[in-house]
Amino acid sequence: FTSEGGDSTAALIAMRCMAQASILLREHLLEACPRSLLSDTVTLSNLAELVCDVSTRADMGIGERLEKYIDLLQRTGQMQQQSKTALSDSSLVLHPTWYVGDGLLLPPLEALSTGMICCKMVMDAESNNPSPSMDDMSRADVMHSLGSRGAYSTALRVLVLLSSNVMSRHEDAALATASIVTQLNSAMKKTYTALAERSLGGTESGITSGCVDGQLAVSLLLHMPKETAFKVYKSALPSAMSKRDFPRILTLATVGTYCCMGSFSSGSSFPWRKQRKFSDQCDDLSRNAIWWRILAQFNVSFDTNNFSRDSLSSSK
Q1: Per-residue model confidence as pLDDT tens for the chain (316 residues)
Q2: C-alpha separations of 88 from 66, 67, 189, 195, 305 in Å
Q3: Nearest CA among 212, 279, 217 for reference residue 247
Q4: How many whole angstroms separate alpha carbon 220 and alpha carbon 193?
């Protein structure tokens, strides 16, 4: 092997060991451990899965090979015990077509070390020492590494796992909550906003895939402050308009309409129900997008600005 190839091989071997540990923890140890060790076992299982999650985003084909190996381990476990199917997929891939944009694409050893640093952060948070500050996270460079490569879902998972573990270990829950909010609130908001932008296909200034995940977008937008949510939603429109991606515009309009008209499983209306002007703008944009798509299909030249001036597409 070359030096680079040897490092990649060593990293893949270590990643496979972590995958084996993750499967063993989840499929065997969690069911067999005594109640007194359940909390520690769940934490250890989550950490092992976190390392696997980060490792599958490795570059040079290592991530894909690890995913195939994990799938093989899972299918083997399912064959041995068919009842264990509910947890058969520990790695949630929200946008499989965004592998390049949403993946870390780090060199294998760097991907592995990033995962291990994440584990250390969580383990430090569980100790009796004070909770790690955001400065400590910045020094570890984990959050920056994840965010700079668009791995927002993994970044959010790290933040949530860190927060939940600190809170579960803290004797004073109220004090723990205040501490977590103080330390992680800014990072959580930033990551959550980035995920919302990604679910809407990206923005003009960020990573743009053009692929809209309507269900995820509705969920994220409804759980954000309205002012921020409207800003995120409108930021996705210029990219779609400039590219004249009319099917995407129609999907975005549908997302906005559903946020205003939908309801929760409990029957209560979404909190955007009273946003009548915004709802009307989405309906207007939807009708325009349908016509734009038809005109484009028949190669009819037109200027979208000649349509409704009060629509979201023309708002600044």
Answers
A1: 345 567 788 889 999 999 999 999 988 888 888 888 888 888 888 888 888 888 887 888 888 899 899 988 888 876 665 544 444 444 444 444 443 345 556 778 877 887 888 777 777 766 655 444 444 544 456 777 777 777 787 788 888 777 776 666 555 555 555 655 566 777 788 888 888 888 898 765 666 677 888 888 999 999 899 999 999 999 999 989 989 999 999 999 999 999 999 888 888 899 998 899 999 999 999 999 999 999 999 999 998 888 865 556 554 4
A2: 16, 13, 30, 25, 50
A3: 212
A4: 8
- HSE of 252, CA atoms in CB hemisphere, 13 A: 35
Tell me how far apart the alpha carbons of residues 83 and 309 are, in angstroms, rounded to a whole number.
57
The alpha-carbon radius of gyration of the chain (Å, integer) is 23
Q: How large is the angle between the packed helices 3-24 and 38-55, nearest 10 degrees?
A: 150
> How many other C-beta atoms are found inside a 10 Å radius of the C-beta of residue 25?
19
pTM: 0.69
From CA 249, how far away is CA 127, in angstroms rounded?
Answer: 49
Query: For residue 123, what are the contacts with CB-CB under 8 A and spacing of at least 6?
Result: 47
Beta bridge partners of residue 58, listed in sequence order: 106
Count of CB atoms situated within 10 Å of the CB of 263: 10
* Dist CA 90 CA 112 (whole Å): 18
CA 54 to chain centre: 12
- Check if the beta carbon of residue 160 is closer than 8 Å to that of residue 92: no
For tokens 């499967």, the residue is 23
Residue 206: Cβ within 10 Å count: 14
Closest to 66 (Cα-Cα) out of 36, 35, 22? 22
Structure token digits, residue 131: 């909770």
Cβ atoms of 312 and 237 closer than 8 Å: yes
269 contacts: CB under 8 Å, gap ≥ 6: 262, 263
